[in-house]
Design goal:
By secondary structure, this protein is mainly beta. It contains 3 helices and 26 strands. Helix content is 4%, strand content 46%. The termini are close together.
Length: 308
């Protein structure tokens, strides 16, 4: 086995920060999509528990594509490339983004927006109105990342807003939050304004501003933790193993890490370890991101020169 020297990420001579190139899953919409004034202001919603009491709902409402970049697909009756003005209106309607792609959706009646990051899949579960006048918006984030903002001044009382994943539900009673779902169905929820209730397996935790929680399939939500804005990376080992690259280390438990575009599995403590294809030109690009869209890039260079 050929083996790379073990090293500390911050002391390695081949390390360079790529904040300007890899700094996050999305940039402000004015940078990516050429749009200003796209974010409405805060909101207040009922908890997921109230959603269980709903008996009568009329199916109305929509999510409309406002801006897009790259490979964005919409599937209503049949899949096709998305266009500005397209709407998701019924259960099962789906929007998918590819690599380096993104879109901004407006929620019906201008109550809010959903910013969908690259490599994401968002599906309508329910859109409608209740007999008591409340509005229902429940969505499935199958994979990827979305950031949501909603305006409580427009939304009627007794409204329900939820984002579902295989691991649990984020029921929103506040204005601004992010959700990330990875390929292992780990769900991370972070709150920037108002309150969010993360629920799974009969347990609910309330997330105040600047708090987050991780949800793993078939388990209750983890206790709330502060959102991490520093996005540090502790890289422990990089080895060649059977013509593959072994990478291991640790990040903050609520964050996610990508290596050359590949999302790495992270356990409850934030530890990761992964075998992956050898990088071309001896370069390994690493990106650490949180659930509300902050990101930090790192570049490890000269891997070929580290071989003993």
């Amino acid at each position: 086995m050929r083996r790379l020297r073990r090293f500390n990420l911050l002391s390695c001579l081949g390390l360079a920060l790529l904040g300007s190139l890899l700094g996050g899953l999305w940039n402000p919409v004015t940078n990516w999509l050429g749009s200003d004034d796209v974010w409405p202001t805060p909101l207040s919603f009922v908890s997921p528990a109230m959603a269980q009491t709903v008996q009568v709902m009329t199916q109305v409402g929509w999510l409309e594509v406002q801006t897009l970049r790259g490979d964005v697909t919409i599937q209503a009756s049949a899949p096709r490339a998305a266009r500005v003005g397209d709407r998701l209106t019924k259960t099962g309607d789906t929007l998918t983004t590819g690599p380096s792609s993104a879109t901004l959706l407006e929620i019906d009646n201008r109550i809010g927006t959903i910013q969908v990051a690259e490599n994401s899949r968002l599906q309508v579960r329910k859109l409608g109105t209740l007999r008591n006048g409340g509005w229902v918006t429940t969505l499935d984030l199958v994979r990827g990342q979305a950031r949501l903002r909603v305006d409580k001044r427009i939304l009627p009382k007794n409204s329900i807003f939820e984002v579902h994943s295989p691991a649990g539900v984020a029921g929103v009673r506040g204005t601004e939050f992010g959700v990330m779902v990875n390929s292992q169905n780990r769900m991370v929820v972070g709150t920037e304004g108002g309150l969010v209730e993360a629920s799974a397996q009969g347990t609910t935790v309330t997330l105040k501003p600047e708090l987050g929680s991780a949800l793993f399939p078939q388990e209750p939500p983890l206790p709330p933790l502060p959102l991490d804005r520093e996005l540090k990376l502790e890289l422990e080992e990089v080895d060649y193993r059977n013509k593959l690259l072994w990478v291991s280390g640790r990040i903050y438990p609520l964050n996610t890490i990508f290596a050359n575009g590949l999302e790495l599995a992270v356990d409850k403590s934030g530890r990761f370890e992964q075998l992956m294809p050898l990088p071309s030109e001896g370069r390994l690009a690493l990106k650490v991101a949180n659930s509300v869209g902050d990101g930090q890039g790192y570049l490890l260079m000269g891997l070929d020169r580290q071989v003993e």
